[in-house]
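Batch queue: ligand-bound targets. Current item pairs a single chain with pyridoxal-5'-phosphate. No template structures supplied; prediction is de novo from sequence plus SMILES. Inputs echoed for audit trail.
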Amino acid sequence: MNDQTLPFLPFALPEIGEEEINEVVDTLRSGWVTTGPKARKFEQAFAEFLGEPQTECIAVNSATAGLHLALEALGIGPGDEVITTTHTFTATAEVVRYLGADVVLVDIDPATLNIDPKLVEAAITPRTRAIVPVHYAGLAVDMLAILDIARRHGLRVVEDAAHALPTTLERELIGNMGSDATVFSFYANKTMTTGEGGMLVTRNAELAKRARVMRLHGMNRDAFDRFTAKVPSWYYEIVAPGFKYNLTDIAAALGLHQLKRLNGFQARREQIAQAYNEAFADLSLILPPQPPEGDVHSWHLYVLRLDDTLEMDRDVFIEQMFARGIGCSVHYIPLHLHPYWRDRYGLRPEQFPHSQKAYERMVSIPLYTAMSDAQVQRVIDAVRGIVLG
Ligand SMILES: *Cc1c(COP(=O)(O)O)cnc(C)c1O
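Prediction returned. Tokens below.
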């Protein structure tokens, strides 16, 4: 094996083309580098991508910001509880704490690794106000079940769709499920990127209005509005103590072109995922769950789990991948294991047996559009070599 002579294959890399670079340069030369015409164009293009009328798209500087704005606009605050999955990134839950509300973590369905709707319903108390499902790895949550629970109990639903672009459920894109809001991420390693960025999507006009104001300091008009209106005006009013969550035009310039390439990106991700599925079918591995027939998985992540019949520690597996020059990761260290969440809510691993078990045996292997076929084969050879010893 001469893997040592090959350059290190990172776990994730963005794919930025000449169109993106030229658009950024154009923005830099234009004189308008913060939120302006390109951010607005990006919002419009995103609404067109989703293809539903009345969709409001609000560009923000991260998905974390979008989740915060959505929950703030829904009036979540002290004394309230918000239910989400323990098997996620801390951003999903931390925004609830920003607002002084409490997080109620529940376990996952071991088949899908998504939040288990039955456990959501069991966790509802008189203080529960909202549910935040996460479309883990890019596989849609059973939104029909979540929305049904929300309807029956009078709860709000904000989808953490950081992984789910483009993902479908019953042939409808995530973003069009009919929840109160859906939030996408354009962080560097997501399925499309603006470096840092996110999109808050809603069909609730009141929520959209509040989020737009709170996105920029609680101002009732942003700078682009004020200086480009027919009668330019320096005047604005502060109507709330807002945040600084606007997306710059430099970032939006990237987003405009990444969005155009998104379906192509998904096709390549799908191709790599299928190559992995075929190559690993005979190994002592639990392969990622497949989407329902006819639906799209974004394949943001390809998460393998070592089967119990394989007597190998997960950490050793990852070390051996690194020894072969291949970066891997783990998604996620469940929230119940992190000191902050564990200590604040007195959480124990036994409360989350499926997340805990999955965490101990899981590894995310490289899957991104910039990988060549040879690099995909290199990952396949490494995984097969390690598992077959
Ligand atoms: C990446 C991610 C976020 C945060 O996205 P940012 O754009 O970095 O704020 C939130 N939730 C999940 C599940 C993520 O993977």
